[in-house]
Design a protein that fits this description.
The complex is a heterodimer.
Chain A lengths: L1 H35 L6 H17 L5 H22 L9 H23 L15 E3 L4 E3 H23 L1 H11 L1 H6 L4 H22 L10 H4 L1 H11 L5 H20 L4 H15 L9
Antiparallel strand pairs in A: 1-2
Chain B lengths: L2 H14 L7 H12 L4 H23 L8 H16 L5 H23 L4 H21 L1 H4 L24 H23 L1 H11 L1 H6 L4 H27 L9 H14 L6 H19 L4 H15 L3 H14 L2
The chains are: A mainly alpha, B mainly alpha.
Chain lengths: 290, 327
């Protein structure tokens, strides 16, 4: 009994940490898909860019972890704004096939560029002293880094939810997701809204990429290798919502950890089967319209 | 006969009549055989992959099913042909039939489950089916060779006569012949009444339901036919390269075939003949010139393509013609 409980707690804990990273990265994708109807397959490239920016600032320029993380988020956020204005914007409502071609092209470019600048091996990450080791939470010891991930994730979910429910920006986003034409008629500057949402989503992805660098290794193939996971979170969670992807990320993170523990041989297989089942049960996502 | 009916029949006959330009790809393919004897291996692969792209065009371009999991059928075909040849049955034509049949069976089975959804959900379902097969092949190492790939294929001469040579002469002509058969079948299919009803489903599914067309069944049929084609293409690749790796089932494979088709032009039957050679030759050149970073260049090529020629090469020409014809 003690053993089983201990394993269950451990799985739940590791699963939660993974879920937070997946959520941080995917929530922006969910919003861009729900808001602009844009299939940004290259979304993971922004997370990867965050990871590379952070590790480079730390390893090459000796920046402290926190500073490097914040800088990475800001850099990627602004870079994504530029990309949105120059490239992405032309393809809103321009047919999903062109969007697939554009974003797959960007993925390939990110793979090539990352290999050129950083080589094929995963980037090492030096966690600050404060995030290493174990922490005693009364019940038992937990790794500090993962506890911190969970805490960060929980705080950010709350902040995002408040931003969407309680601010004017959030009202505009929700209005535009529900009915774009009507929102425009009522004077919402949707072009600026799109840019802001896109930049914010990419910045969050960069944060997820940087924070989660220990869980999802920063390698050139990042955007392609993890694409399925991000898409699962978005599709299972439902488009354009904050809370759907969160629940989906929780399911995916915990199930992935549990399956890989219980049946390491067939771990990923079960995840895909679970996704298929969930999508057959709720085709438009757990929190999407039935 | 009433005029309206006659003009409809005329239109139907016109659609079936071969246009002169339709001979062009075949002329090019035969000319390439003599002009580039050093590149026949690549040429054979291009011809085989065109069948794969045709299979995507059927579901995407004609039935409007956006798929990111067509590699499921391509890979099933490749592994079927490969496993047969590695286990003592190297007869290529029956191997190819088995590849198509197996892929078709998977297509029918998965299609019956997933085709009730649409949009992003359907795209995810197709992706997940391919991912499940990938994992199965990865873990079924005793049969598939797992991540090392399937070794020891022995493919017999075609019809007992034409041995696969190291220069790719036989492979090239074999792929060309199979492509010709596949093309005739696909062309007949999309120009038939069945093909028209598929276009109807793509354009307005509600109306097709309203006029009583069996939408779900037609979708399932075209999905299965497309799976068979993809399986044949995978079988061809396995037989001509004598190797099957996990890559045949990968997301990258599903993604790149979609890209090749988009580059050529979707829903026009000839997009496959333009996009596949363009992409594969570009990839071959880039990876020869710059073996480490060619991904970047092919990505850049795709981005430039979509910025300057959205709708693919065929779309580019149709737009130009439309502009010219405007008074």
């Amino acid at each position: 009994m003690g053993d089983f409980l201990s394993i269950a707690i451990s799985i739940a804990f590791h699963g939660l940490a993974l879920a937070m990273v997946l959520y941080l990265i995917s929530v922006g994708l969910s919003v861009t898909m729900g808001l602009m109807g844009f299939v940004n397959l290259a979304h993971g490239a922004f997370a990867m860019a965050g990871g590379y920016a952070m590790t480079t600032l730390m390893n090459r320029y000796g920046a402290p972890f926190w500073l490097a993380l914040v800088a990475a988020v800001v850099i990627v956020g602004f870079a994504s704004l530029v990309l949105e204005r120059v490239l992405y914007r032309r393809f809103y409502g321009g047919g999903e096939l062109n969007q697939v071609l554009l974003t797959m092209g960007l993925i390939f470019m990110s793979v090539g560029a990352a290999t050129y600048f950083w080589g094929p091996v995963a980037q090492p990450i030096q966690l600050p002293q404060a995030l290493r080791g174990q922490i005693d939470l009364g019940v038992r010891d937990f790794p500090v880094y993962r506890s911190f991930l969970i805490l960060c994730g929980a705080l950010l979910v709350t902040a995002l939810w408040l931003a969407l429910e309680r601010t004017r920006f959030g009202v505009r986003v929700r209005a535009a997701v529900d009915n774009l034409a009507m929102a425009q008629t009522l004077g919402v500057n949707t072009s600026r809204l799109f840019a802001l949402a896109f930049g914010l989503g990419s910045a969050l992805a960069a944060l997820g990429g940087g924070l989660g660098a220990e869980l999802l290794a920063i390698t050139p193939g990042y955007a392609l290798d993890n694409l399925v996971y991000f898409l699962i979170v978005v599709a299972v969670g439902g488009l354009g919502s904050i809370r759907g992807p969160f629940v989906a990320a929780l399911i995916l993170g915990v199930a992935d950890t549990a399956f890989k523990y219980a049946a390491p041989e067939l771990g990923a297989f079960f995840i895909y089967a679970l996704t298929m089942g969930l999508l057959l049960w709720r085709p438009r996502g757990i929190f999407g319209p039935a | 006969m009433p005029d309206a009916r006659r003009s409809m029949l005329d239109a139907f006959a016109r659609r079936h009549r071969l246009h002169v330009l339709e001979g062009l790809p075949w002329g090019v393919a035969i000319a390439a055989y003599f002009a580039f004897p050093d590149y026949l291996a690549l040429g054979a692969q291009i011809l085989a992959v065109i069948i794969f792209a045709l299979s995507v065009d059927l579901v995407l371009g004609y039935a409007g099913i956006v798929t990111l999991g067509q590699a499921a059928f391509f890979g099933t075909g490749a592994y079927t042909a490969g496993i047969l040849a590695a286990n003592g049955w190297g007869e290529p034509l029956t191997g190819l039939l088995a590849a198509g049949a197996m892929a078709g069976a998977i297509g029918l089975l998965s299609g019956a489950i997933i085709l009730r959804t649409s949009g992003l959900t359907l795209l995810m379902q197709t992706l997940v089916v391919a991912a499940m097969l990938y994992e199965a092949a990865n873990k079924g190492g005793r049969i598939t060779g797992g991540s090392d790939g399937l070794q020891g294929m022995d493919v017999w001469p075609i019809l007992g006569k034409f041995r696969f040579d190291m220069f790719g002469h036989t492979a090239y002509l074999y792929c060309l012949a199979v492509l010709a058969v596949a093309w005739i079948a696909v062309r007949a299919l999309v120009h038939s009444a069945f093909g028209r009803s598929l276009t109807g489903i793509r354009e307005n599914v509600t109306r097709m339901h309203a006029i009583g067309a069996p939408v779900d069944r037609r979708k399932l049929v075209v999905y299965t036919v497309s799976a068979v084609l993809a399986g044949v293409s995978g079988g061809l690749i396995a037989q001509t390269t004598q190797f099957v790796g996990l890559g045949v089932l990968s997301l990258e494979r599903s993604g790149t075939i979609l890209i090749m088709l988009i580059i050529g032009g979707v829903g026009q039957l000839y997009g496959a003949f333009i996009g596949v050679p363009l992409y594969m030759i570009a990839q071959d050149r880039f990876s020869t010139i710059d073996p480490t970073y060619w991904y970047f260049w092919i990505g850049l090529f795709m981005v430039l393509m979509v910025v300057f020629a959205p709708g693919g090469v065929l779309g580019f020409f149709t737009r130009r013609r439309a502009r010219r014809d405007k008074p």
